[in-house]
Specification:
This protein is an alpha+beta fold. Among the domains are: 180 residues, no CATH class; 96 residues, no CATH class; 171 residues, no CATH class. 53% of the residues lie in helices and 12% in strands. The protein contains 27 helices and 15 strands. About 3% of the residues have low confidence.
Length: 696
C-alpha cells in the first residue's frame, strides 16, 4: 500500500526545528566570521584576509554603482590592480572594508568582461552587486551573505537527515554538522562556498522524490523547482551541473502512485526539469560551448595532489604532477602538436578535450579506483585514519543493506546517488570541492543510531528478529522474503557491479601502459651536460648549456614542451627529486615542484630512468623567459645520479607522463590502488614546499 508523507502538524514541528538549526548556524557564523575578528580582534582563519583578491568582484562593484555588467578596461584583474581607481583596487584586495561610489572616478574606462570568468559566475556577481547596491559596498555585506549561505546549507542538511531518521537524531547530527568548522574554512572563496546550498537542496529534492510517492501536483512542482535550482546554481559555480543527470534519473525511476499515466507523468516531469533548467542556464552555458573549459577543469583534477588527497596508493607514474592552469594548458597544446598534423588550426590546438580523452582511454582502471577512493573519502569525512575509514565503510555498507532490506527500490536508488555524488569529487579532489559532502558520515551514523536506539527502529528490529526466528524454527532451510531479496537482488549484484568494471578496466590499462613502457625502452636520449652544486642538504645538478632562443610563434604564449630523463641507480625506497626552473618568477614558482621516484629493480637489473615533461617559455617581445634549470636530490641520494637527458623521438610518446621506468619491468607498478604504502605518506602538496629546504 502506497503511503503519502504526512503534511500536517509534524511538518510545522520540522519547520520550527529547521529554523532553530539555521539560527544556530547563523550564530556560529557570526561569531567566527564577524564577532571574533571585528569585536574581539582575534585572528580568524575563516574570514577574508587583507591582500586576498580571489574571487575578483570588480564586476559586482560595477553592478552596484549602476555601470552594468562591465569591468575596468585597464589594469590587472588577477591581482585586482586598477591604476585608474586606486581605492577600488584597495577595496578588492581586502585592504579596506568599505567603498563609497564617489571614490570610483566617474570617467573610469570600462568594457565588457574580456575573460570567461565573469560570464561563468554571472548570477554570483549580480547577487553580490545587488546586495552592495542595497546595503552599501562593504565586505561586511559579503560576510553576511556567506553566513546566510551557511545557514541555508545547514537547513538543507536537516532536511536530508529527516529523510533517514527521526527528529531527535536529525537534530543532533545537524547540530554536530553546524559546529564542524571545516565547513567554514571553505567560505573564504565565495564562489566555491556558494555551491553548497544549491547541491544539497537538489539532493534533498531527489531524496524526497525517491522515498515518497508524492501526488501529481507536488511531483510537477518539485520537478520544476529542481530544474530552477540547477539552472540558477551553475551561475554561481559550474559544479552544480553534476546534479542534472541524477535529477533526470530520479524523475524516471522514482516511485509513483497509480499505473495508467505514470510514463506520461515521468516524461512531463523531465521536460519541466529541462525547461526550468534551460531558461536560467542559457545565460551562462554559452560560455561552455565547445566543452574545453570543462575539460580543463577535469584535467586539473588529474594532478597528483588530488590523488594524494583521496589516499590513493601511487603507481610508477604521475599523470600531471603540477596543479597549474598554465602547465595543464601547455601539456594539452603539446599533446595536440604531437598527435596532429603540422597545419593544425589555432582552435584545435587549444582544445583540451583530446588530452582528456587520451588519459581516460589510457587509465580506465585508475579512474574507477579514483571514484571508489572518492566515495571512501566522503564516507570517512576526509580523515586520513585507516581505522576510521574502515569503520565508516562498514557502517555505510550496513546502512545500504538495511535500506535495501526494508525497500529494495529505495536501496538501489540510494546506492546510485551515494556513489554518484561521492564519486564525482574525484573529478577535482580538493577540500573546497568536498566540504558540502561532510554531512554524509553524520547521516550514516545518524541512520544507524536511529535504527538501534529509537523506539520505531527497535520495534522493527525486534519484529524482524522474531520473524526470522519463527521461520527458521519451522523451516530451517528457508529465508525470509525480504532477506532473500536483499542478498540476491541487491548485495550480490552490487558487489559484481563494483568489482567487474574495476578489474576489466585494469586489464585494459595494463595493455595501454605496456605501450608506454615500450616507448620508454625505445627512447632515443641526448645527454645534457650538468654540473653538481651542493646546496646545504641537497645537491643541485644544473644544466650548463641552453638551446638558442627560438623566434616565437603566433600563439598568445610561446611555450615549448619537451620530454626529459634523469637516470639513477635502482632503489628500494621512494626518493625525492626537485624539478627546478629559473626565470620569470610567476611561472617558475608554479612549475618548480618536488616529485618522488618510485622504487624498482636491484643493482643487477640496471638503472632507473625517470621521465618527466619540461615546459619552457620565451617571450621575445619582453625578453622574459622561464627555463628548466636542473634537478636537485638529497645529498644521501646524489651518488645514485647517472645523468640528465632529452628524449629525441618524442613522437613515440603521445603522453608526457612522469614515469619511473626500471630496467626490471616486473617491478613496475602498473596502476593505482585504493590504499597502500604511500597513502598518507607521500604528499604532492607537501613536496611543493620543499623549496624552503633548497635555498638560493
Amino acid at each position: 500500500m502506497i503511503r503519502f508523507p504526512r503534511q500536517t502538524g509534524s511538518f510545522c514541528i520540522d519547520c520550527c526545528l529547521a529554523a532553530f538549526l539555521i539560527m544556530t548556524a547563523v550564530v556560529v557564523g557570526l561569531y567566527h566570521l564577524y564577532i571574533a575578528p571585528e569585536v574581539l580582534r582575534a585572528p580568524s582563519w575563516y574570514g577574508l584576509q587583507p591582500g586576498m583578491a580571489s574571487p575578483n568582484l570588480a564586476c559586482a562593484v560595477m553592478v552596484a554603482t549602476g555601470r552594468g555588467f562591465v569591468v575596468p578596461s585597464e589594469g590587472d584583474s588577477a591581482s585586482a590592480q586598477y591604476p585608474g581607481a586606486p581605492e577600488l583596487s584597495r577595496f578588492l584586495r581586502q585592504e579596506r572594508t568599505h567603498l563609497s561610489p564617489d571614490q570610483i572616478p566617474e570617467d573610469l574606462p570600462t568594457c565588457k568582461p574580456f575573460i570567461d570568468w565573469e560570464y561563468r559566475h554571472r548570477y554570483l556577481l549580480y547577487t553580490a552587486g545587488l546586495l552592495w547596491r542595497v546595503f552599501g559596498i562593504s565586505w561586511h555585506v559579503i560576510t553576511a551573505f556567506r553566513i546566510a549561505l551557511f545557514g541555508m546549507l545547514v537547513g538543507a542538511v536537516y532536511g536530508l537527515m529527516r529523510l533517514g531518521m527521526g527528529r531527535f537524531w536529525s537534530t543532533a547530527m545537524t547540530l554536530a554538522m553546524a559546529f564542524n568548522l571545516n565547513i567554514l574554512m571553505n567560505c573564504q572563496n565565495l564562489r566555491d562556498f556558494s555551491k553548497g546550498p544549491f547541491i544539497l537542496a537538489a539532493i534533498l529534492i531527489m531524496g524526497y522524490l525517491i522515498k515518497y510517492p508524492v501526488r501529481r501536483r507536488t511531483f510537477v512542482l518539485l520537478s520544476t523547482l529542481l530544474g530552477l535550482i540547477i539552472g540558477v546554481g551553475i551561475g554561481f559555480r559550474a559544479d552544480i551541473l553534476v546534479c542534472l543527470v541524477p535529477a533526470m534519473l530520479t524523475l524516471l525511476f522514482c516511485r509513483r502512485p497509480g499505473a495508467g499515466v505514470v510514463i506520461r507523468e515521468r516524461l512531463a516531469g523531465i521536460l519541466l526539469l529541462v525547461a526550468a533548467f534551460v531558461i536560467p542556464a542559457s545565460w551562462v552555458m554559452g560560455v561552455y560551448s565547445g566543452g574545453s573549459l570543462l575539460a580543463h577543469d577535469i584535467l586539473m583534477g588529474f594532478a597528483t595532489k588530488n590523488d594524494d588527497m583521496l589516499g590513493l596508493n601511487r603507481a610508477s607514474y604521475e599523470k600531471l604532477y603540477v596543479n597549474s592552469d598554465l602547465f595543464v594548458t601547455s601539456m594539452a597544446i603539446g599533446y595536440n602538436e604531437r598527435s596532429s598534423s603540422s597545419d593544425i588550426s589555432s582552435s584545435a590546438l587549444y582544445d583540451e578535450r583530446p588530452l582528456l580523452l587520451k588519459l581516460v582511454r589510457t587509465f580506465p582502471g585508475d579512474l574507477i579506483a579514483r571514484g571508489y577512493a572518492s566515495v571512501w573519502y566522503v564516507v570517512r569525512g576526509g580523515s586520513p585514519s585507516l581505522v576510521r575509514g574502515v569503520f565508516m565503510a562498514l557502517c555505510a555498507a550496513a546502512v545500504l543493506l538495511l535500506i535495501a532490506y526494508r525497500d529494495l527500490r529505495l536501496g538501489w536508488m540510494t546506492l546510485i546517488l551515494f556513489f554518484y555524488f561521492g564519486g564525482y569529487l574525484s573529478l577535482q579532489a580538493e577540500t573546497r570541492h568536498a566540504f558540502h559532502l561532510l554531512f554524509v558520515p553524520y547521516w550514516v551514523l545518524g541512520y544507524l543510531a536511529n535504527a538501534l536506539f529509537s523506539r520505531t527502529g527497535k520495534e522493527r528490529g525486534l519484529a524482524a528478529v522474531r520473524g526470522h526466528a519463527m521461520i527458521k524454527a519451522l523451516h530451517p532451510c528457508r529465508w525470509t522474503h525480504s532477506c532473500k531479496n536483499m542478498i540476491l537482488k541487491f548485495a550480490l549484484p552490487a558487489i559484481i557491479l563494483l568489482l567487474a568494471p574495476l578489474y576489466t578496466a585494469r586489464a585494459i590499462q595494463s595493455h595501454c601502459l605496456g605501450n608506454i613502457v615500450d616507448a620508454c625502452a625505445a627512447a632515443e636520449l641526448t645527454p645534457v651536460p650538468v654540473k653538481a652544486r651542493p646546496v646545504e642538504d641537497w645537491t643541485l645538478f644544473e644544466r650548463t648549456a641552453y638551446s638558442p632562443e627560438h623566434g616565437g610563434s603566433a600563439r598568445p604564449f610561446d611555450g615549448e614542451v619537451e620530454y626529459w630523463v634523469a637516470e639513477f641507480m635502482p632503489g628500494t625506497q621512494w626518493r625525492r627529486i626537485w624539478l627546478y626552473y629559473t626565470g620569470d618568477s610567476a611561472i617558475a614558482e608554479n612549475f618548480i615542484h618536488g616529485c618522488w621516484i618510485a622504487p624498482g629493480g636491484d643493482e643487477k637489473s640496471g638503472t632507473t630512468k625517470y621521465f618527466f615533461p619540461v615546459v619552457e617559455f620565451r617571450d621575445p617581445s619582453t625578453s622574459s623567459q622561464t627555463l628548466f634549470y636542473g634537478i636537485a636530490v638529497p645529498n644521501e641520494c646524489s651518488g645514485d645520479f647517472r645523468g640528465l637527458y632529452k628524449v629525441r623521438n618524442t613522437k613515440g610518446f603521445t603522453l608526457f607522463l612522469n614515469v619511473a621506468y626500471p630496467a626490471d619491468r616486473a617491478s613496475l607498478r602498473p596502476w593505482q590502488t585504493l590504499y597502500g604504502e604511500t597513502s598518507g605518506v607521500l604528499n604532492a602538496e607537501e613536496a611543493r614546499f620543499w623549496l624552503q629546504e633548497l635555498p638560493g
